[in-house]
## 1
Amino acid sequence: MMEKLMITVALTGAEVSLADNPNLPVTPEEIARAAYECYQAGASIVHLHVRTPDGAPTQDSAVFKEAIGRIQEKCDIVIQVSTGGAVGMSVDERLQPVYLRPEMATLSTGSVNFGDEVFLNPPTYIEHFARVMQEYRVKPEIEVFEVGMINNALRLLKKGLLKEPLHFDFVMGVPGGIPATMKNLLHLTESIPPGSTWTVAGMGRAQLFVATAAILLGGHARVGFEDNIYYEKGVPAESNAQLVERVAHIARIHSRGISTAPEARRILGLDGYRAKM
Ligand code: KMH
Ligand code: ZN
């Protein structure tokens, strides 16, 4: 039997701007409001990036703290901070929100071409991130942009830097990463250890296709402006919640239940991770 569907919403990201979609949540207050709308629409996890007042990506823990505090005033959605930040940020910069002890953080287990740039994650970085997450009792979501990154995660597991059950996010369709095809998705799902959980994030128009595939395959789905700003071709999404609602609707059509935040904590084994900010 399939677990209920966990919907993660990636609200803001580091690359999208207000010029791309004027409905992008940028300030901590806007981010908290958007997170709450998505929670009401069925999201149980929020993947969090924050911005400076002028809209630039930042990993400043004070800004994360404000955004997380405001979200937690409104709802109990699982908080997952980004340690990817933006391309070119230093390791120390990227790690800042982990010191706040959120329940989850992302852990990219390899480098990948990222458009015209390189998202750099050599072995020394990965091990350091994993060690800090272990020390601060933050559950990693392993970000897989290429299939070899699964193997890199298994190497961390062997070294004792990760603990099973592992939770993966397959990031598909980044220019430079694995293309978002059904064949590739099946290959990824068959390449992770039994007992692992997985979610999938498709870039652009692939968001809807891979989310639907996840609903049918027993995986979980990530949607939101970080990965896709359109509702349909040429039509900008009105809100992150609109994208969450659509995936929740598709899940209901297929009789796949939607997990609440406490149910997501159970599925992910997060008990004991939660810290109020
Ligand atoms: N912004 C990308 C360079 C993550 O959040 O961990 C990396 C990223 C992944 O967004
Ligand atoms: Zn991200």
Note: Residues 13-14, 82-84, 86-87, 106, 108, 114, 119, 143 surround (5S)-5-amino-3-OXO-hexanoic acid (ligand 1) (CB under 6 Å).
## 2
Amino acid sequence: MFGFKYYTPTKVVFGKNTELKVAELIKEFKGTKVLIHYGGGSVVRSGLLKRVTDTLDAAGIAHVVLGGAVPNPHLSLVYEGIELVKKEGIDFLLAVGGGSAIDSAKAIGYGVANEGDVWDFYDYKRQAEGALPLGVILTIAATGSEMSDSSVITKEEGLVKRGYSSDFGRPKFAIMNPELTMTLPDYQTACGCTDIMMHTMERYFTNGGNMEITDALAEGLLKTVKKNALILAKDPKNYDARAEVMWAGSLAHNGLTGCGNDGGDWMTHKLEHELGGLYDVAHGAGLAAIWGSWARYVYKNCLHRFKKFALNVMEVEAIGTDEEIALKGIEAMEDFYREIKMPTNLRELGVKVTEEDLEIMAHKCAVGVGGAMGSALLLKEEDMLKIFEMSM
Ligand code: NZQ
Ligand code: ZN
């Protein structure tokens, strides 16, 4: 077991109608003029944005609105947001939406609080020394960005999708009303559940420092999300299932399920980020399309963890060799993806990929991780290419 830092400063307000607490929370964190940042319009159509602006108006909190954060949010909108915040004298950011709106808001926050080009942080050139305070009203359980230290932005030029992590990026508060997620298309609900599980699985499939308590939390979280994802596939308005998944989403990516281990593997995410950058696919679906190939490529080097996963999470029968049990666990996970209508390869993901594209993605991925990365198995560019080829 390794030592660790666990830092989760985000105040969580969870339950029905909690979005109505937004003004009092902004005041608690000393916000006086707010940029409300959102995505493509679901919050307008659902009436949530109007409820939020009415609540701020009633509390006398000035606000400016900036929509347009697309899935795999773009750097150009971040630049626009930075200019707007500076021009309007805004001192607090409020993201209303999912990971894309939240991540875009985080990047705006870095850009306002630090001199120079905000892309430098995503390009690993320097570290942020602060950020504008950020609050979140979450509308999709998925990325965990509402409590995480990370933000993922796509630079349109060259289609480069990169993440940046800093404790300054952790939101001051996160409002989580599971009812707000009931307007989600089924596909996005399933993508979210996939992403939540993957955040825990990235931390679970490691070769270093695992702890019993962390494993128990991780396995409980994975089984809970799996069970409730299946409930939501049939009964999307089930409040309790929405709530289970929503809270799991935050716990899966606030560091809890990684305490004591070596930091995790994260290569499924890194490979997916290349897909998301190039083909603009939904993040969760991209993860599902890659994971099986990654797992089959690496499992022998991390057999004890794959066996444990198969027995404790996928609950396969303990019959056969360790390898056979591990493979049954991988197959069971892919069966689960099919049940919630997630893809298990690039063809099912619906992207037409050429061999040249695969080489470009593997190369960009290797550059992005500084040459090689992975704990279940250290992957170099040639391994990344093989995994992409296996996922065709
Ligand atoms: O944009 P709108 O119109 O709001 O529609 C969104 C979008 O089309 C829709 N949606 C969200 N809430 C809804 C809703 N539709 C109806 N009702 C609602 N209540 O769902 C679609 C997806 O939204 P998005 O915010 O893009 O999804 P998600 O939360 O999955 O975020 C994905 C982005 O986050 C990054 C991903 O790479 C991707 O760019 N990630 C961020 C992480 C982090 N910051 O910690 C970690 C993750 O691993 C991930 O990489
Ligand atoms: Zn993710």
Note: The chain has two domains: 11-180, 186-390.
